[in-house]
Amino acid sequence: MSTLDRRSLLLGAGASLGLACCGRSESRPAPGAAGKAARLIAAARAQIGITTRYDPAYTVISFPGGDVPRGRGTCTDVVVRAYRDALGLDLQALVNADMRAGFAAYPHSWGLKGPDRNIDHRRVPNLRTWFRRHGAALPVPADGSGWRPGDIFTSLVGGTGTHIGLVSDRRGRAGWQIIHNIGAGTREEDALLAWPITGRYRWALD
Domain limits of the chain? Predict the structure, then answer.
C-alpha cells in the first residue's frame, strides 16, 4: 500500500465512524491510573491540539531523539513522543539498536537491506516486533473490559492498514478510550474496539 493510499484509508475510516474528540462531560477519569501510566497518558494527551496533521512522509531526522515537527506525525509518533516525554525512553534508539543486533527478526516489507534510524521506529510492525522481543506482549482481552490505562494497542484498519495507540484513563461506552492519530492529528476518543485488535503491550510501567 502506498503512503497516499494508506493515509486516505485512515482518514476515511476515522471520518466514517464519526468519532469526536473526547475528554468532555461524558468522560470521567478512572481510578487507579497512577505513577508511570498516568505520566505516559498525560504526555500523550498533551499532544492533542499540537499534532493536528497525519503525515507519514519519510523525513531525515536527528539521532538519537529525532522527531518530525510536532505539528504533524503518525500513530506511531504519538507513542514514541509519549514515552520520551513521560519516561525518557527513546524508541528510535532502542528499535535501531535491536534491529542492528537482530535485523532478520524484523519485517522486511519495505525492501531494506539494513536498519534505517529515520523511519524504523515509525512503523507499526517494527514496534510490534520490538515490544514482543522485549517481553511486553500481553493476551488480547475478549472485550474492552480487560485493558489497563497505559496499555498499547495495535489494530488493523480497512484490512491492511496497521495502527497503534495508547489506552487512556477515561471511560468510554464499552471500555477505555484511546489516544491516537488516525488522520486528523492526535485525539482522545471512544474507539478502542472500532477496528480488529492485533496486539496488546505493556512496557516500562511497572
Answer: 3-201
57 to 51, 72, 120, 122, 198: CA distances (angstroms): 15, 10, 13, 10, 24
- pLDDT tens-digit readout, 114-161: 999 999 999 999 999 999 999 999 999 999 989 999 999 999 999 999
Distance separating alpha carbons of residues 140 and 198, to the nearest angstrom: 8
Helix 91-101 vs helix 75-87: angle between axes, to the nearest 10 degrees?
110
- Please give the mean pLDDT across all residues of the chain: 88
Closest CA relative to residue 180, chosen from 167, 193, 169: 167
Q: What is the pTM of this model?
A: 0.85
pLDDT band at 33 (very low <50, low <70, confident <90, very high): low
* Residue 122: C-alpha distances to residues 28, 80, 164 (Å): 31, 8, 10
Residue 156 near residue 162, CB atoms below 8 Å = yes
The whole-angstrom separation of Cα 111 and Cα 106 is: 12
Contact criterion met (CB below 8 Å) for 200 and 140: yes
Could you please state the CATH topology (level 3) that the domain comprising 3-201 is classified under: endopeptidase fold (from Nostoc punctiforme) (3.90.1720)
Q: Contacts from 19-22 at CB under 8 Å and sequence distance 24+?
A: 19/187, 19/189, 19/190, 19/191, 19/194, 20/189, 21/48, 21/187, 21/188, 21/189, 22/170, 22/172, 22/177, 22/187, 22/188, 22/189, 22/190
